[in-house]
């Protein structure tokens, strides 16, 4: 059998299997395979994991998930009170007091990153995994977004991540190995409506991390991008809008078709321990729609025009109806 024919058959089988599994799984096929046949979460035991944005949402639940499996945790966020609450949950999950370091900080204050990094390494003697989870979303009409919002969102979602990641890469190169993780979004691989600055920030993050992954091939530095779809959390209340200093201030509707934060954190942990390059996470039909948008853009545009932007928006927020007129 010719090589090209064999490759073609493999591709056909891959997509056939994926189509059959689509209604039954809540992630991409690679992550599903890792969850069922890959490395177990118990391999987190003894690893030092630094999670930013750990005071709520995915960061909080990821910390608890890793605490269950014996990881040593560094938790960073602005709110000391919320970090203490998450610390309590981690202790209940089986972590010991010696295995948790709280490192409160505004992550956008990049001048403090070197001091923070040194403190982590001094406290635990090493760092195995850095999870850049801090970030905020956005709901705004594209042409109404003020430039100050673009800059503020990029400072948080991109430049703070890159700053801390560069310190981690230098350290990992020095010690011979390490793992960088960023919580991105499916908005980082498609053009999500009514989130122009946020979508751009996640695309920028993908560019930085994919470039790094290719540049450091063979250097034993793993790079993982986790891309959740809609998840139940308090993110909408703290969303950016198009106006500087304004919060979106709405709650997620209980009727929304969203993945639970606990499930998202579990799948994120699976992606991390298996060192996947990229992981897509979301309730059906979010992931297959993402595949359609990425691999069949012209067809996707026709479908979007037929369905309408507002109906597409309801896949993200059932109660949030943006007006672009």
From TrEMBL:
The chain crosses the membrane at residues 6-25. It holds the Pfam family adh_short. Signal peptide: none annotated. The keyword Transport does not apply. Gene3D superfamilies: NAD(P)-binding Rossmann-like Domain. GO terms for biological process: lipid metabolic process. Residues 47-229 form the Ketoreductase domain. PANTHER family: DEHYDROGENASE/REDUCTASE SDR FAMILY MEMBER 7-RELATED, DEHYDROGENASE_REDUCTASE SDR FAMILY MEMBER 7. Belongs to the short-chain dehydrogenases/reductases (SDR) family. This is Dehydrogenase/reductase SDR family member 7. It comes from Lygus hesperus (Western plant bug).
């Amino acid at each position: 059998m010719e090589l090209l024919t064999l490759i073609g058959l493999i591709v056909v089988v891959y997509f056939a299997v994926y189509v059959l599994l689509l209604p039954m799984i809540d992630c991409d096929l690679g992550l599903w395979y890792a969850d069922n046949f890959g490395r177990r979460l118990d391999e987190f035991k003894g690893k030092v994991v630094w999670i930013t944005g750990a005071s709520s949402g995915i960061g909080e639940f990821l910390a608890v998930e890793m605490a269950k499996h014996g990881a040593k945790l560094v938790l960073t966020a602005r709110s000391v009170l919320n970090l203490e609450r998450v610390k309590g949950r981690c202790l209940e999950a089986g972590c010991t007091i010696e295995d948790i370091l709280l490192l409160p900080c505004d992550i956008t204050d990049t001048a403090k990153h070197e001091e923070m990094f040194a403190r982590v390494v001094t406290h635990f003697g090493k760092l195995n995994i850095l999870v850049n989870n801090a970030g905020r979303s956005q709901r705004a009409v594209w042409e109404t977004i003020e430039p100050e919002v673009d800059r503020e969102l990029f400072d948080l979602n991109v430049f703070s991540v890159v700053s801390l990641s560069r310190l981690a890469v230098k350290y990992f190169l020095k010690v011979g190995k390490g793992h960088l993780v960023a919580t991105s979004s499916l908005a980082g691989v498609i053009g999500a409506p009514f989130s122009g600055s946020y979508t751009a920030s996640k695309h920028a993050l993908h560019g930085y991390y994919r470039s790094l992954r290719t540049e450091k091939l063979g250097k034993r530095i793993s790079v993982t991008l986790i891309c959740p779809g809609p998840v139940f959390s308090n993110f909408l209340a703290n969303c950016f809008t198009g106006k500087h200093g304004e919060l979106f201030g709405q709650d997620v509707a209980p009727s929304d078709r969203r993945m639970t934060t606990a499930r998202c954190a579990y799948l994120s942990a699976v992606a991390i321990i298996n060192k996947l390059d990229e992981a897509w996470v979301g309730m059906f039909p979010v992931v297959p729609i993402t595949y359609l948008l990425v691999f069949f853009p012209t067809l996707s545009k026709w479908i979007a025009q037929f369905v309408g932007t507002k109906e597409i928006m309801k896949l993200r927020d059932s109660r949030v109806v943006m007006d672009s007129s």
